[in-house]
What does this fold into?
Amino acid sequence: MKFGVVTFPGSNCDYDAYSAIKVLGEEVEFLWHQSADLNESDVIILPGGFSYGDYLRSGAIARFSPIMKSVIRFAEKGGLVIGICNGFQVLVESGLLPGALMRNDHLRFSCRFVYIKVERNDNPFTRDCRPADILKIPIAHKDGNYYNFRGDLDELAINNQILFRYCDKNGNISDESNPNGSAGNIAGITNRGGNVVGLMPHPERAVESILGSIDGMKIFRSVQKYIREKVVIENA
Amino acid sequence: MSKRKAIVYVRLKNGVLDPQGVTIQKAILNMGYDMVSSVRSGRFFELEVFSGNGHVEEKVNEICRKLLANPVIEDYKVEYQS
It folds into this structure.
């Protein structure tokens, strides 16, 4: 199984994502933004950073790069894509995920550990989590304030597309545990098919105990198991 | 081919919280101008466009929808100057 990590000009978590997949023990390679070739990756990671200097809006320019045309086609065919932080911003700008990520309500860049609650553990990226699992994962962003129209927010909930919500360490979802003003404490969502996931927290920065948490590994291990099981079924 | 200017104004939709506008308004109040009750921030762009090609306005609108504004949170308005 191969993971592809996209590098845009201004990506700065691409090496962290690459390293996390090495810790996971799987094959991983960088995909350059000017190329349209996904090199037969099974999972695409859109990493964090400041693609194109966050010009215009975070993720707005990256969406039109050659690699994104291929990523969009891959996602529309059911391919597994995870966007982390700036990668999440690219996914909403490209229309693969609904809504928008606005400036944090307090206008500051926030870089610290937060807790997120796993709202569903039947997604390819969360199947290794317990039901209502609480993960300790860091955030590092200024534009992470998830916004959507009220009706569309209701629809997200009805379709079970909310994957992670900010909470406290006991799992309480409250204004105090919301680090950026996101509607409904939303930290991560999926598309309707469940194959495209975006989240603001950085699981790739929580994969070894020396980093302060290993909870992020659950997300990568989830998708690893998902692909292994799929391969077993396909070969049966 | 003659050129004209398309001036694009992008602003947050009504009802979408604008924390930057709120912060700027507070600064204005701190400066002593107490008659300012609200500030909404936005951006504008000047596009020089060839006017000879057909459907220029339609294409500029397309650029606005696809790139300059995010229709989820923003409205835009275009004015033309010859």
